[in-house]
Structure formats: C-alpha cells, structure tokens
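Budget justification, computational time. The allocation requested in the original proposal was used primarily to generate structure tokens for proteins on the priority list. As evidence of use, we reproduce two of the resulting records. The first is shown immediately below.
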Amino acid sequence: MEKRIAIINIGVGNINSVFNAIKRLDEKPRLISLGNELDLFNPTHIIMPGVGAVGSAINNLRLKNFINPLNNLVKKKGVYFCGICLGMQIITETCEEFGIHEGLGWIPGKVQLLDTKGLSSPHMGWNTIKVTNKNNIFLEINDLDMFFAHSYYVNCPEKYIVATSKYGSEFAAIVQSNNIIGIQSHPERSSLVGNIFLNKFINLG
C-alpha cells in the first residue's frame, strides 16, 4: 500500500524535527497547514505534533479549518492518526490548562496538571516507557527510555492506556483507540527508540 503521511502544522512547536524524523525512515511526509490541503492529500497516516497549551492549539485547528477534515478522515474513514505530546492531549474531551477547553473528544478523559510529588515542573527529560498491553504493537519499546517535555497529562479510562511512565506520579505515556494513537513523549527527540515507535506507526495498515 502506498503511504501518504501527513504532518499537521497547527502552528505550535517545531514540526520540522518530526518531518525530518519521518524522512530518516525513508518516507516522504508532507507538511499540511490547512484543512482543505488535508482533504486533497487524502492521507493514509496523519501525525499531529505540538507543544504548548491545548486551548490555543484547538483554536488554531479551527482557524485553519482542520476540525471537520480530521473528524471525517480519522473517525469516519479510519485513517491512522498519531498525536505527539500536545497532539495527544488534543484528542481527549477536555483540558484544564488556563481554563477549561474542549478537545476533539476521540478518547474519553481530560488533561490535568501532573502531580510531580515535589519534582521540578515541567517534566523534562528521559523516562522509561512501561507497555501495559502485552499484545500491543509498541511492545518493542517496553522498558526503554524516551524524551518527555510536559506539565500536563491525559487522565483517561485504563482500557485506552497501552503504556505508562512515571515522574513523581504514574501517567499515561501512550494511549490508543483503534486507529487513534497518542504519545506523551517526543519520539522525534528520542533517538533509536523514537525511530522504532514512528516506524511501527507508519507501517500500520
């Protein structure tokens, strides 16, 4: 199957590092900045990276007319989707950062401030991934370290959590609902382990 990998530019964070990470896997991703571009590209895989606050990111998605195309492609047509860091938080129902903000609602749950138990915040550095679903495609990265940079985490039902990590408190590191995946760490900044994760994702289907 021909892969058409779209990387969504929502104007928050350095998407070039994700673009280059996918290129290093011998793929040809396309940066997409508007909703109609996404429709025309008709992707097989969508990656949405980002850093910052959910509220401003959701606002940017609306301004760039991404909401309907994303819902149509991901929820209705089953296109594979991976949200990275902020991109993972956007797919939940609500976020409690700088007020209450509505997310895409693809995975039930909310984004809350991580209880670091006195450790410095934001959580920034390398931490171990613990894959909790032994039948999951990401089992290969179990007990390996990835790079994190966040203050908030996704609080969702356990059945959607396929991997955890711990920084003061345990939190969801990877969530999944069918074709929809979210990862709290930054695979594009996680060296060989990040490459394994991204390669597993882009080979789905």
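The second record produced under the same allocation is shown here.
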Amino acid sequence: MFQLLLLSLPREIIDILMLKFVIDKMNKYLIIFAVLLSAMICSCKQENSQWRGEARDGVYHETGLLKSWPEGGPALLWSFEGLGEGFTSPAIANKRLYITGLQGNELVLYVFDLNGQLLTKKEVGTEEDENYPGPRSTVVVNDGKLYIYNSFGRLLCLDAQSLNQVWAREIMTDYGGRNIDWNFTESPLIVGDKIFITPGGERHNIVALNKNTGEHIWSSPGMGKVSAYCSPQFIDGYSIPILVTSTAEFIVGVNADTGELLWSHPQTHEYEIHPNTPLYYNGMVLSTSGYGVGTTMLRLKDGGKAIDLVWHNEDLDNQMGGAIRIENHIYSGGHFKRGWACIDWNTGETKYMETNVIGGCNVISADGMLYAYSNRGNVYLVKPNPNEAEIVSSFPITLGTAQHWAHLVIHNGVLYVRHGDALMAYNIKN
C-alpha cells in the first residue's frame, strides 16, 4: 500500500523523500562513527606521571583504601630485587611502571607491567657509583615521552613505547651548571610545552627547554646560587605563571613564561641542602628544610610578583621527605628533633612535636590518611589529627638495601615502596 502511494506522487516529491532518507541514514552512521572515534581518542589518551603526585604536593587522589592494616602490614602483591642501588620512586602511567637503578656505573631504566613482570630494561647513560651510589631523579612521564635526569646533569628524553632517544642535553656544559656535594637530585617539572631544570649556574641558574625538542626557551640568573637538590613547583591562577624552587641560600620565584626573577627569600644553613618541593595553597607558599632551618610560610601578593613573610617555625625541619597539608594543618617528620609534627598552616603554631615518634621520613597522603616511610625502614599509616600523633598501623620493610630514602607512591590501590635494590607493591585497597 505504501509503495503504491509512493509511486503515485510526483517525481520531485519522491526525489526529496529519498534524499531525506539517505541523509537520515548518513547522519545515523556519522553519529556512530563519531562515538567510535571519540572512544578511540579516549582510549589513546596518554596518562602522565611526575614527582610526588599530580600537583607535586604528595597527595594521591585515591579512594576506597584501607583505614588500618593487618598485623605485619598489607598484603605483598609482588616484589622485584635486582634494580641496583638508587633512590628514585616509580613513575606509573599507561599501565607501565618506570624506575631507574644502578648497574656498575650505568644508569638503567626498568619497565614493568602492573603485575610486576619486567618487560624490558635499557642502559641510558652513566650514574653516580661512589657518593651514595644510584640515581636520584624520578622519571617524568609526559605525553608519551620519558624524561630522565642523571646525577651529572644529563637530561634525556625517550619515546615511552620504543625507548628510542628523542633528544638529550648536557645541562652542566650547555648552561655553565655547577654540580653539588651529593650531585643533582632534581626531578624536572613539565608544564605545557616547557620542561624546567636548575643547572645552578651564575648566569643560567634556572632554565626552560622545549619538552619536545630540548631547544632553549629561556634562562634566568635567579639569585646565582647553586642548586639545592630541590624539585620545583608551579603556581597558576595569578597575573603571571610562577615557578618556585629552592637554591642554596634562597627560596625563589620566577615568571614561568619568561624566567624573570620575581622575588626571593633567604633560607640558609651550612650544608646548602633544601630538597623539599614547596607547597602552595590559598595564596601561600610553604618551604620546609632540615638541619634546624625549619619551615617558612610566604604569602604571594601583587599578582604573584612579590611576597610577605607570614611565619617561620623551627620545630618542623623535614630533611628531604616533604610535608603534607590536610585542611589547615601540616604534617611531617622532623630531622634534628626526630619526631612527628603538626603545624597550623595559617599561623605556624606548633600543635605538637612528639619526639621518638616516626622521626625522619618521607610522607604522602591518600583517601584522608597519611603514609610515612621512616629512615629506619618502617612504613606507618597515620590518621591526621591536630591534637596528637595517631599511628594506626605500621610494618617493617625487610627487602632491599642501603638507605630508606625513596618516596612512597600510590597508584590504583597499590602502595609502592622502593628500598635500594628492591621494589615492593602492597595491596592497600579496601
């Protein structure tokens, strides 16, 4: 009946109806194609990984984690012994784990799947083999590339899939850099197309390179002081983007677009060691340092182009393990006082410093809890409490070698602990 009706219509009407039918079909297929293309793009989207989490603040955005551990600690999922000495943390992205170690005097990159299976390894240059042997700088994963910085100032970019070299720069040679007592330790920072590094030269103190080519973008004289083992922080949301780091005698802020020195604040002790990445929150920048230096809070003003000193506290002097801000309090372990401290973020008031509790450590957080890895080889689960040190669970690290200095990492409900030659993965998912 429908066909007879259709045939009785004028030819022009039939053509219009057929054209509409074809267009409707094409639209349907275009929609399907667009959905499939979108799914393919999403599936190919690269994950990135950098030092101390997404914002370099030690906070890992995980949920559903255990609020206490069984006696003896969480279940060990897998371990690997044979990395060689080193202090780098794992970098995890795109279902791959990247970490470096020392074999002889060679810097070796190891690539694992997330089940702990070693997929490949590659020698990527030389590394410090005498003075606290092993690599210091954690691999940065960014847009399908790996960035590796060795103790002697060689910055290397590799393709993450093939591990072929994309580019390399000799930072000391190219920028008049000056190495330091325990060698370069900085984990480079990438923002947009720039990668930032601190040669510590008198003229070229802090530099920005193109992350894709290694080409020079800018250099800043800073305050002309050598590097202080610090991995920089990036601050956005002001009239200019700000790069903050610590060099031997100063906390410095520079314009991340141009390298112009914006401000500086003195921070000194005889060893010139200030490794902790500054923290930023709500207009204020916190820097903590060991050897009795303590913790300094600065407030940004004039659109980030200047600072005021808000407070200074000598109770909390973390040597190289960072600090965590939860709400309006800072938690970390001390160096000289060797205790566990809580400081008020806004006022600098010491809420408590409990000596002989945890002590020197590196600290991160996830799902409302604190994770501290002490220099003595114990891992602690701590509930944030501004009134007292509330340790919930702990367990000892029994594998590995040398110092317990590598920072903890959490990824997809797994706690990763590197102790020298060994890497361990613990299930902390509830």
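A brief technical remark on that second record: The chain has three helices and 33 strands.
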